[in-house]
Amino acid sequence: MNVRKGWRQRRSPLISALDQAAYGDLVAAAPAPHTGAELAALTALLARSRKQIGAVAVGRSRDAPSRAAAEAFTAAWEARGGTVLAVVDWPESAASWLRPAVRLTERAPDAWVVAAAPLGFAQLARRLRHSTDWDPARTYAFAALGDPRLPDLAGDGTLHGLRGATADGGTWEVRHDEVAVLPPATGPR
């Protein structure tokens, strides 16, 4: 391990105030309320996964739209016969993100579902990658996290594989440092 790589592994995964300032409107963004098409597309993404997903952990910001989206997903997932192992919330700013990161991963779910504002999730994702066995490729999110600037805010490779639904029922996926968006499917799924 070289000195620079060792320093990166030991330093705090918190996003600096300077980096936050560079993403002003993204950092200040509150999620829009979820849509029915978004919820349907998100549950369909999990149902179509190559790996059978039964048990999930749901993470959410503490704002009203994220809380409502998490509650709607939980009800929809349980109605399909799925299990929600935990619902974990977090503030938009915290001195440490370790507690919610551990709570979100400790029961080893098949997948994670996230309804959150971008800054809080970027902070949490950095802690998840730094301190747990969380895999963004097993994580599904609502539309607020499909912003093309989020991978850069979260940091190099932190969100690679994260996918989610758009408000109109399309989907998106983080591929390295870019967000690829697909329009809603037409016809039967």
Task: Please give a quick description of this structure.
The chain is α/β, with parallel strands linked by helices and 189 residues long. The chain has one domain (33-182): Response regulator (Rossmann fold). It is 39% helix and 19% strand.
Key phrases:
189 residues; alpha/beta; Rossmann fold; 8 helices; 39% helix; disordered N terminus
3D architecture notes:
The chain is an alpha/beta fold and 189 residues long. It has a single domain, classed as Rossmann fold, CATH 3.40.50.2300. Helix content is 39%, strand content 19%. The protein has 8 helices and 7 strands. It has helices at 3-10, 17-22, 24-28, 36-47, 64-79, 98-105, 118-131, 150-154; strands at 55-61, 83-90, 111-115, 139-141, 163-165, 171-175, 178-182. A hairpin with a 5-residue loop joins strand 5 (163-165) and strand 6 (171-175). Helix 6 packs across helix 7 (118-131). The chain is globular, with a radius of gyration of 16 Å.
